[in-house]
Amino acid sequence: xxxxxxxxxxxxxxxxxxxxxxxxxxxxxxxxxxxxxxxxxxxxxxxxxxxxxxxxxxxxxxxxxxxxxxxxxxxxxxxxxxxxxxxxxxxxxxxxxxxxxxxx
Length: 104
Hints:
Elements lengths: L2 H10 L10 E8 L5 E6 L2 E6 L7 E5 L1 H9 L4 H6 L4 E4 L1 H4 L2 H4 L4
Parallel strand pairs: 1-4
Antiparallel strand pairs: 1-2, 2-3, 4-5
Helix pairs in contact: 1-2
């Protein structure tokens, strides 16, 4: 699966109910591919290629780690502890990804 397909899958598995009242931007810096960001705004989700100028949280990883987390094969917290995933900004928001998207 390409990185673009991984993000399309994320967008398709978005849980709008969990995002009610939220206004967040998740920036994904993919070290070996293009960067993307997800704009979550009161129950909606927009996937955009490139960098956002003011993300709520930035997640930095390679495409293999991204695919593992989205497929459910890799636990995000374990990837973080192992140094495969880095976060900048509001790290607690990264834990909300599992609520906002059906992983695996």
